[in-house]
Amino acid sequence: MGSLPNCPKCNSEYTYEDGSLLVCPECAHEWSVESVSEESEEKITKDAYGNVLNDGDTITVIKDLKVKGSSKVVKVGTKVKGIRLVEGDHDIDCKIDGFGAMQLKSEFVKKA
């Protein structure tokens, strides 16, 4: 079988070509080959207000965030310096004073 990419929506490996489009039989998602190559080149991470985030930026937390496995809470207004962008659901890797290394979602921060 050819080396077609997995479905970007459900990650199914059973994709097939239909004319100029790629189709997923499991979730019925259709996409073009060009859109896959453009997305894979560079993923843009944006904060809650649509500002583009980059490695090394300083951000501010906009919502109280409970720390899983602890009774601590990261308070609104906490500034975090020197972030690092990573792949995944929690797309910001950082160190927060008093908490240590953490991963945050970009939807709960704003660029400072």
TrEMBL record:
Residues 3-32 form the Protein YjdM N-terminal domain. Residues 46-112 form the Protein YjdM C-terminal domain. It comes from the Bacteria. Belongs to the YjdM family. This is Protein YjdM. The lineage of its organism: Bacteria, Bacillati, Bacillota, Bacilli, Bacillales.
